[in-house]
Amino acid sequence: ENEFYLTGGTCLGRFYQYGFAVKNIKQALQRDFNLAVKVESKNFTRFKIDGLLQIDFVNDVAVRYKDVKVLKNSYIIDNVENILSNKLTAVIGRDNPKDIFDIYLISKFYTFSWSDILNSAHKKAGFSNEDLIIRLKSFQELPFRFIEAN
Where are the alpha helices (DSSP H) in the chain? Predict the structure, then answer.
């Protein structure tokens, strides 16, 4: 409940996809920033850094799929399966092609049980597989064939 960890697209880009090396975050944090609190509530805080970078802190007490990972450098990151589950729930409620691209990359580079991922996503948000398929097909001009006919 009080554990902060990196998740979502940023976590994928920095720690999972294409074997990207972890950036030296300590070095980046050793400079002064103009930090502004934009939204603050019990379970959500949004910061803007230098007016450009938005960082959201969410106390996410929803259903998790598997545990977070603690890296050697003590960074705590989400597991790729939970990120995928969250991306599927995100697709239902927003029109952001980056979610589709992240789903595609995870499905291409990682092995997991779609059934388990979908079950996890269903526990987090109420939607049917048919609703998900309709949403996925609603994204125009995908640069890849994502939905295969069975």
Answer: 8-11, 25-28, 80-93, 97-109, 114-124, 129-138
From CA 45, how far away is CA 56, in angstroms rounded? 6
Contact 23, 29 (CB under 8 A): no
How many whole angstroms separate alpha carbon 135 and alpha carbon 124?
17
Per-residue pLDDT tens, the chain, 150 aa: give them: 557 788 888 888 888 864 433 444 445 556 677 888 888 877 778 888 888 777 777 776 667 889 989 998 888 889 999 999 999 999 998 888 888 889 988 998 899 999 999 999 999 888 999 999 888 888 776 555 555 443
Tokens describing residue 3: 């554990």
Q: How far is CA 72 from CA 22, 42, 69, 75, 86, in A?
A: 11, 31, 10, 7, 25
- Amino acid letter for position 23: K
Rounded to whole angstroms, the Cα distance separating 45 from 63 reads: 20
Q: Which amino acid is at 120?
A: S
Decide: pTM greater than 0.90.
Answer: no
